[in-house]
Amino acid sequence: MKTVLQRLRETPYRKIAWIVALSETLHNIEEAIWLPEWSRSAGPWHPPVGPFEFRFAVAVVTLAVYGVILYFTRRETRPAQLLMGGTLVVILVNVFIPHLAATVMTGRYAPGVLTGVLFNVPVTFYLLRRGLKEGEYTPSSLALGAGVCALLALPLMLGSFAAGRWMERALF
Predict the structure, then answer these.
(1) Cα(123)–Cα(105) distance, rounded to whole angstroms?
(2) What is the pLDDT of residues 64-94, one digit of tens each?
(3) What is the H or E stretch that residue 64 is in?
(4) Residue 98, preceding bond cis, omega within 30 degrees?
(5) Is 12:76 a contact under the CB 8 Å cutoff?
(6) How confident is the model over 23-80, as pLDDT tens digits?
(7) Which residues contact 59 (CB under 8 A, 6 or more apart)?
(8) Cα torsion for 88, 126, 144, 71, to the nearest 10°?
(9) Separation of alpha carbons 7 and 1, rounded Å
(10) CA atoms of 70 and 64, how far apart (whole Å)
(11) Cβ-based neighbours of 92, under 8 Å, separated by 6 or more
(12) What is the reported pTM?
């Protein structure tokens, strides 16, 4: 009988990349449940956000991650590799800044730490390490991809929050 690690190693990288979708979905669900309330007293770590606008923005970001993974698994191109590697780096860094940093600096739990540490760190670390080993990424391609993804993520998130606020006013 094969162990989980043996099965992981035998699964092609472009198929196993989908595990980050699961870990990021769990992470975003945790945030969607508890972050709006937490944000009311988070100080500089997060501006106060309403539940609807935040959950809308988190849904958009989650779908964007799925889109990147779908693109990566369907196209063996440099842009697909850059976006996938960059997404992995951004997800990994996001666990430490702001989640863990906010927990340490505020002295109270910041939503997203549990799923970030239990799921996102090991999953992204595994995928990054394996991707480097198998030639999907180089250190420089990861740095470039992370920069591109960080630049794309900011307007995506800000636009999603604005769209969520607009939809809430229009619908409710």
Answers:
(1) 26
(2) 999 999 999 999 999 999 999 999 999 999 9
(3) helix 51-74
(4) yes
(5) no
(6) 999 999 999 999 999 999 998 888 999 999 999 999 999 999 999 999 999 999 999 9
(7) 28, 32
(8) -50
(9) 10
(10) 10
(11) 120, 121, 124, 125, 128
(12) 0.94
